[in-house]
Specification:
161 residues, alpha+beta
């Protein structure tokens, strides 16, 4: 039994994932407080738990008006990141499986190292931004490390031939 997706998803999901990462960075740097942009993505959405900054906690299904772009971008990043990292290669073997496992292990080590530094050196409201970034850092590091290892592997195989 394999838990990997078909190799046909690999290139599409990889392009979509890295494009969404770049677009997310552009959004964070240039568009985050742009009222015209935010008005395009503000509408009523269902919420199970809701709390305003200085309001009461409300539990139960309700409709709230929210800027939904962050959530949509997050869902797409997770879906395409997982599809990219866990799609088979055309010729999947034990060495590629080992590279995938090593990349996942190293991404966890690096992410939790950064998390420890964040816990010890970042305070105040900016801490929440760092924690939000940590959600996507594991999958980004995993995909980057795995793609670099695959590139180096295929390059060395091509040089041997």
């Amino acid at each position: 039994m394999t838990l990997l997706l078909s190799y046909r998803y690999k290139w599409f999901s990889r392009i979509a994932f890295y494009s969404l990462v770049l677009f997310g960075l552009v959004y964070l740097i240039f568009l985050q407080d742009n009222q015209a942009f935010e008005s395009l993505f503000t509408f009523k959405v269902p919420a199970l738990i809701n709390s305003e900054i200085f309001g009461d906690l409300v539990i139960g299904l309700q409709w709230v008006e929210a800027m939904f772009f962050d959530e949509a971008l997050s869902v797409l990043l997770i879906v395409f990141g997982l599809m990219s990292g866990f799609s088979k290669e055309r010729y999947e073997d034990e060495y590629i499986d080992k590279m995938r496992n090593d990349s996942l292990r190293w991404s966890l080590f690096i992410n939790y190292g950064i998390l420890l530094l964040t816990l010890l050196g970042v305070y105040g409201i900016i801490y929440l931004s760092f924690m939000f970034a940590q959600l996507f850092l594991i999958i980004l590091l995993f995909n980057l490390l795995f793609d670099i290892k695959l590139y180096l592997h295929y390059k060395s195989v091509a040089n041997e031939e």
